[in-house]
Amino acid sequence: MRLFYSATSPFVRKVLVLAHEVGLNDSIRTVAVTLSPTAPSAELSARNPLGKIPALELDDGTTIYDSRVICEYLDGLHSGPRRIPESGPARFDVLKVQALADGIVDAGILVRYEILLRPEALRWNDWLRGQCDKVIGGLTSLEQEVGTFGALLDLGQIAALCAIGCLEFRRPLDAHPEGAIDMRERFVRLFAWYDVQIRRPSLQSTAPR
Questions:
Q1: Half-sphere exposure of 4 toward its Cβ, with a 13 Å CA cutoff?
Q2: Statement: residue 84 has pLDDT above 90
Q3: What would the mean pLDDT of 14-33 be, rounded to a whole number?
């Protein structure tokens, strides 16, 4: 299998961490692509019409995307404990945390695009505030979820760890119009959990760079 990826993407990282945790990392070859919202990759777009990463090309030449679908696919390939429960309330608990984490990342990326791509004179502070507040709201909810996390690193936890790692790497809350927000000071319990889990080999080897 070939995974089209960028080393800085938290969505790619989610796939790679899951692959490491379930013993499939040696089955995946990574293919680096360079892209931006204004400069898509032709190689990637030929496989994913949305031009987004990650995209996983299977051995038969078909391609699946996005990260949620890829993770579901990979979780069905191993013989160990499922990282996405197959049914019942536990399944939707995991998927809900994944959706929350992915939403945090989406809002953080929109902040980055506003700062990085839009000329300063055209930046919209209300937009920045709205996206930063989504990140804060998401982190507040994640901190409440920490006490429910089990010993098995499920996909919800993986997504949460990758989202927090992205925030530490890109620091979108530094752009809050009312002033930079210190996540570690504000979300002590969440970061205490994060600092323990981030030592795992699967997360160390996939850190954004």
A1: 25
A2: yes
A3: 97
Cα(52)–Cα(109) distance, integer angstroms: 13
Between CA 57 and CA 47 the distance in angstroms is 8
Residues 97 and 7 in one domain: no
Is there a single domain that holds both residue 118 and residue 61? no
Q: Evaluate if pTM is beyond 0.85.
A: yes
| DSSP H stretches of helix in the chain | 10-21, 42-45, 67-75, 88-117, 125-145, 155-170, 183-186, 188-197, 201-204
Sequence letter at residue 27: S
CB atoms within 10 A of CB 190: 21
* Domain range for 36: 2-75
Strand partners for 63: 57
C-alpha–C-alpha distance, residues 180 and 182, integer Å: 7
Q: How far apart are CA 123 and CA 130, in angstroms?
A: 13
**Same-domain pairing of 71 and 111:** no
Cα separation, 159 vs 104, whole angstroms? 10
Is the separation of the CB atoms in 143 and 189 below 8 Å? yes
Assess contact for 114 and 128: CB atoms under 8 A: yes
Sole residue written with tokens 């989610």: 14
